[in-house]
Design a protein that fits this description.
By secondary structure, the protein is of the alpha/beta class. It folds into 2 domains: 192 residues, P-loop containing nucleotide triphosphate hydrolases (Rossmann fold); 54 residues. It has 11 helices and 7 strands. The chain starts with a helix and ends with a helix.
Length: 278
């Protein structure tokens, strides 16, 4: 008859997740982190556009590029929060900057979903064990609701706790919200708190832990048209300026606004009508 202790030990082994095998970081430039079970999936081809095609975000582009190049060289670098208007190229800039820097100094980009932030400590342990590589953790569209506790896990990257953030890891996050939480929630918590100044300090101060704040604002019509002309020149799509202007303005009117995303959507339609593959 089997010993009860042996049966208990066998049951615990079945419940416990197996040790995560370290991936071959030389196999790709990008990875996606998944939990349950924990794993890093390689991304053979990262979907991005060339850095030179990002128009109207010159200051943010140069700042993030310099910070990333410092990091890739093994020098001190800041975590970065890219916040502001939707569709203005925040995530595109992160991927484009990684591509430009990686061509000079090898570094990896790892995408992590907001829902997987509670598992980030395990990811950091894996990356800490690969000191010869440099890793950019990328969390796109980051924000938190009233009862969301995921922000506490994020502090493991921003502050590092007792063990500290690995020297070979930096975090880049994008958000439509400067403080990562809705303004009406901030006001509601302040208004109902005994001490309003402390009511939202823990959540709001999370954004303060990013060394770089890069703001993105809605573009004007000239910048919108310049984006599209840049795409046309880069991909060899021939169209007269007058026709481009008329079509692009009509396209933005149907979408109710201008942004880098709207510019790319119009250009995709234009390239398709011209029979040009992207």
């Amino acid at each position: 008859m089997t010993d009860p202790l042996e049966r208990i030990a066998a049951a615990l082994e079945r419940l416990a997740p197996p040790p995560v095998d370290a991936p071959d970081f030389d196999s790709a430039d990008g990875f996606v982190w998944h939990a349950a079970p924990d794993r890093l999936d390689a991304v053979p081809h990262i979907k991005r556009i060339d850095l030179s095609l990002l128009v109207g975000v010159d200051r943010a582009r140069e700042t993030l590029l310099a910070n990333t190049l410092q990091f890739a060289k093994g020098l001190p670098a800041n975590n970065a929060l890219l916040w502001g208007a939707r569709g203005m190229g925040k995530s595109s800039l992160v991927k484009a900057v990684h591509g430009a820097v990686n061509a000079q100094r090898p570094c990896k980009i790892i995408e992590i979903q907001r829902e997987d932030l509670p598992t980030i400590a395990r990811l950091l342990d894996m990356l800490r064990a690969a000191p010869k590589h440099r890793f950019i953790l990328f969390c796109d569209d980051l924000s938190f609701s009233h009862d969301d506790q995921h922000y506490k896990s994020l502090k493991a990257v921003l502050d590092g706790g007792v063990q500290g953030r690995p020297d070979n890891v930096v975090l880049y996050a994008t958000s439509n919200r400067r403080h990562l939480m809705p303004r009406d929630m901030i006001e509601n918590e302040r208004g109902s708190a005994i001490n309003p100044s402390e009511a939202t300090e823990e959540k709001v101060s999370l954004s303060d832990r990013f060394g770089l704040w890069l703001g993105f604002h809605p573009c004007d019509q000239d910048a919108y048209l310049a984006m599209i002309r840049g795409y046309c020149d880069a991909y060899g799509v021939a169209i007269r300026d007058a026709d481009l202007r008329a079509e692009a303005i009509e396209w933005q009117a149907t979408r109710g606004g201008r942004s880098g995303r709207v510019a790319w959507q119009y250009f995709t339609d234009l390239a398709g009508r011209k029979g040009i593959s992207l």
